[in-house]
Here is the input.
Amino acid sequence: MIPIKKPNEIAIMEKAGKILAEVLEEVLRHAKPGVKEIELDRLAEELTLKKGGEPGFKKVPGYHHSICVATNDVVVHGIPGNYSLKEGDIIGIDYGVYLDGFHTDMAETIRIGGKEPGVKGEEDETDKFLRIGKEALYEGIAQVKPGNHIGHISKAIQEKVEKEGGYSVTRSLIGHGVGKDLHEEPEVPGYLEGEINETPLLVPGMTIAVEVIYIMGKPEVMYSGTDDWTIKSADGTLGGLFERTVLVTDTGHRILTQK
Here is the structure.
């Protein structure tokens, strides 16, 4: 059953989402050459606690960190460690804030030492990869409105990533509902399988995590090492992740994870 949020619950999630957006922006600002992944993890927790929230991922059984990091060929769920970021790396930071019984979820991927947002310049393949992923996120979010189906979101993301970008959306890692639980119904794939009208209908009060989880090469992924969390691209190419928590409103949508 897909949970429909009440106005007071939406207000809590919006407050949590604002904390999350502010914290993630600050953490990304600190992601520079020489900085260790674990330092970003500690910063995220420190900032969140100061703002009155809690790191949501620490409530996941068996996971003991605040953020998940996806550096270079890591796609999702990487455990922050002592790796020092280098110029030219790309890093995806997935983070969730928990407040008064509700979760929010958000992710962003950046290039270490890359151009500041909005600064024009020659685009190489890595720049294009990140641009396509971010654009796919917002094209997917644009489909969030009453009367549409989850499949409209999936189709928009897949077409942007695979047809325009020439990259691959992962098939085993998808978006999801979010609220009292970090992962709720419905599933929100970044690819369309079957008919759109056979996928869940979007109705006001639904809160979903729209995610673009994609790879520069082929879509297959694999677990890396022995931590049972870190998932990498099977072919060793770059992985990317963009995510926002989105509310279906009476007339369209509202992104809850924003300042």
Q: What stands out?
A: The chain has a mean pLDDT of 96. The longest strand covers residues 90-99. Residues 7-29 form the longest helix (23 residues). The domain at 7-255 is CATH 3.90.230.10 (Creatine Amidinohydrolase).
